[in-house]
Amino acid sequence: MTSSPSPPPPPSSSPLLRHLIAIDTAISSTLYTLTQPIFPRPFLKLLEISGDGRLFFPIIIASILSPIPSSSPILLTVLINLLIGSLLDLIIIGTIKHLVRRPRPVYNKHMFISFAVDHWSFPSGHSSRVCFISFFIYLCTDLLKSDGLLGFGDFDMSVVFSKLNVIVIGWASATSVSRVLLGRHFVFDVVAGAGIGVANAVFVFRYFNFKLRLKALYKIIMIRL
After folding, report:
1. Could you tell me the residue range of the domain that residue 211 belongs to?
2. Is the pLDDT of residue 10 over 80?
3. What is the pLDDT of residues 160-211, one digit of tens each?
4. What single string gives the DSSP state of each residue in the chain?
C-alpha cells in the first residue's frame, strides 16, 4: 500500500524542523505500510476503542458513584484524581492541537471525529490518556496498599498489584503503538502524547494526593516498625 507524505509545514518553519518532520513522516508511513499484513485491523481498532475517552469517562464516573469506593477514602480519591487528570489531559491536548495544527497522515481512513481539534494530529490524545492512566495507577500502588488492600487473610495482594501494573502498562504501550499502525498519528505525535501523559500523572499525583501520601507513608512506617 502506498501513501503520500503529509502536507509540508508552513514556510516560516526552520529547515531543521522541516527535516525532522520529513523523517517522522517517512518512518511513520513505513511502519504503517509494513505492519498492515501483520497486525489484524480489528485488534488495533479494539485497542483504539479501549483508550477512547468516550469509553473511559463513563466507566470512571460510574466507578466513583458506585458503592465500591465508599469504604475506602484513598480508593475514592484515586478515582476522583483519575477523572481530574483525564479532564486536564483533554484541555492540554486540545490546546496544543489547536495551536500546532499538524494534519493527520493522509492514509488515515474511517476515523470518527468527535471534536474539531480531532482533525489535527499532534499530539496523540489516545497516547497521552492511556499513559496518564497507567502511570498514575503505578504511582498510586503504595497508596492503595496502605489502605488495607494489601492482603486478605494469607493472600498477598502485592502480587495482584504487580500484575495489574504490568497489564496496564502493557495496554498503554500497545495502544500508543497502535496509533501509528492504524495510520492515525505519526511517531512523534505518539511520543509527545506519551510524555505529556506521564508528566500529567506526576503532576496530579504530587499536587492532588499530598495528604493521602503522608498518611500512606505513616502507615507503611508503622507497619514496618
Report:
1. 15-224
2. no
3. 777 888 999 999 999 999 999 999 999 999 999 999 999 999 999 988 865 5
4. ---PPPPPPPTTS-HHHHHHHHHHHHHHHHHHHHHTTTS-HHHHHHHHHHT-HHHHHHHHHHHHHSSGGGG-HHHHHHHHHHHHHHHHHHHHHHHHHHHH-PBPPTT--SPPP-SGGGGB-SS-HHHHHHHHHHHHHHHTHHHHIIIIISEETTEETHHHHHHHHHHHHHHHHHHHHHHHHTTSS-HHHHHHHHHHHHHHHHHHHHHHSHHHHHHHHHHHHHHH-
Angle at 145 between CA 139 and CA 146, to 5 degrees: 105
CA distance linking residue 135 with residue 133, whole number of Å? 6
Residues 6+ apart with CB under 8 A from 30: none
Indicate whether 2 belongs to any domain: no
Of the pLDDT bands very low, low, confident and very high (cuts 50, 70, 90), residue 63 is: confident
Among 218, 207, 197, 198, CA closest to 81:
207
C-alpha 198/C-alpha 156 separation (Å) is 28
The pLDDT score that the predictor gives to residue 120 is 87
- The catalytic position among 19, 98, 110, 185 is 185
Q: What is the CA radius of gyration of the chain?
A: 20
State how many domains the chain has.
1
Question: For residue 124, what is the domain's CATH number?
Answer: 1.20.144
Does residue 19 have an active-site annotation?
no
Is position 185 annotated as part of the catalytic site? yes
Which pLDDT score, from 0 to 100, does residue 153 have?
45
